[in-house]
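Acetyltransferase: structure, please.
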Amino acid sequence: MTNKERMLNSQLYVANDPELRKDFKHGRVLTRLFNNTTEEQMTYQKELLKKLFGKVGEHVHVEPPFHTDYGLNTTIGENFYANYDCIFIDVGKITIGNNVMFGPRVGLYTAGHPIDATVRVEGYEYGYPITIGNNVWIGGNVVVNPGVTIGNNVVVGSGSIVTHDIPDNVIAVGNPCHILREINNDDKKKWETQKQAYITEMNAE
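Here you go.
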């Protein structure tokens, strides 16, 4: 089994490997090109993102600057938005669903290093996948740790450190991140009412 195969299968691997160095350079070149674009180059930005990520939906917007290790190990669904300074460390697979929003400086960190210092300094690493469901909003400065799955219809409060899986239909906050409460029909009624008030006001002008 190659180091790349071991990396993507959550096994111990060595990053100083010709195949991985090639993939890493591919990611660095594309992120550098992307981060040097301007707001007038949105079509070019999308072209670069399609080359960078393993798979990406048509309606995706990432605000530069953005940083990643490989990009190739990240899959993103439709209708995705990431604000400034997001970081995807994708030595493990990152899977992001549809209708997902990231605040600024969200970090998805799949990488890990051995606790034992002797093994760690010899260059061994590992990575556990991160999975994010559909209809998820992650606030600014959130860190998602290796191996975490965030369910569908979840809101994660800003500054949270997500160390364990988060189930569907909840608001989660804190360090370590924990469930604050379930999202319920009262939330739906509140925001539908405010939306209708907005529509009424705009139509009256």
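Notes: The chain has a mean pLDDT of 97.
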